[in-house]
Amino acid sequence: MDALLFIPVSIAISLTPGPNNFCGLNNGIRAGVVPALMATTGRVAAFAIFLLVSAIGLGAMLLASETAFLTVKWIGAVYLFWIGWKAWRSREFGGAAMIENGDGTTAVAAPQHYSVKALAMQEFLLGITNPKAIILFAAIFPQFIDPSKPAAMQFLVLGSIYLMAEYVSTLVYASCGRQIRRWIRTPKGVVRLNKATGGFFMGAGGLLLAAQR
Fold this sequence. Notes:
This protein has 213 residues and is mainly α. It is built from nine helices and three strands; from the N terminus they run H-H-H-H-H-E-E-E-H-H-H-H. A three-stranded antiparallel β-sheet has the order 1-2-3, covered by helices on one side.
């Protein structure tokens, strides 16, 4: 096991665009960097479960099961379509509805408080219903395991490194999201952003349905 070599590898993998990272970007836009980082705990919890599954050898069994793979894939795709449709129809921004006054100025209605618990649950559901995460932990992680040494401790070390890398990834995406927030000045801009967000999630759902093992 080469933990030092795995650090840049894990960061590179965690930064790969996908539903969870776009969720981090979206949370950064609407709730801020700190809530987005706190919500990442939900994603990390989902991935920790996959790590445990891979460590005890069930990951390979899940990959070999067509039924299990298809079940996870369809649940994940439906969830992505659902949150995408909600975002597509939304006229809110940062929990508040922007209203254009008759004089051309823009007013912001009373904001809705973002629950970190709700954001973390969304991150968890996106992570736990992504079959590509199973492939990552069941197929890629074993390549860094030294068979001559106890596997449990190696999984613990490598897994901890990867889970920490997910927080680094969220920091990058949420920070970018916070910058995007500064560009949104009008109700039309909010609608376009929400439709782009919804379109991405629904598109990710379509790609997930097309995914093969």
